[in-house]
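Hi C.,

You asked whether I'd gotten around to modeling the 98-residue construct. I have! Everything is below, sequence then structure, no commentary in between.
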Amino acid sequence: MIYHVTTAAEWKAAQEKGQYEAASLPVEGFIHASADERQVRGVLERYFAGQTDLVKLSIDPDKLEHELKWEVATSVSEEFPHIYGPLNLDAVVKVEAV
């Protein structure tokens, strides 16, 4: 399982559109994800501090329609999973408020 944090509004928009495209996709070419709960906590602290109405998507990598690459995030010198394309909704197996 891998994880991605987004807003409830962005997740709702993805459901209406039929796929999820994070803001990073057109800019960096991929959707950022986390490998475990420790990485999720770090992402929440670094990028979502003080924000509310967030959700954590639990994603089954075997169901992804686009390439998944593990790459080093130089800011923390740690490998993270990156999804190179829109996230197909059927790969999301659980959505939790955070």
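If it helps when you're writing up: DSSP finds three helices and eight strands in the chain.

Thanks,
B.
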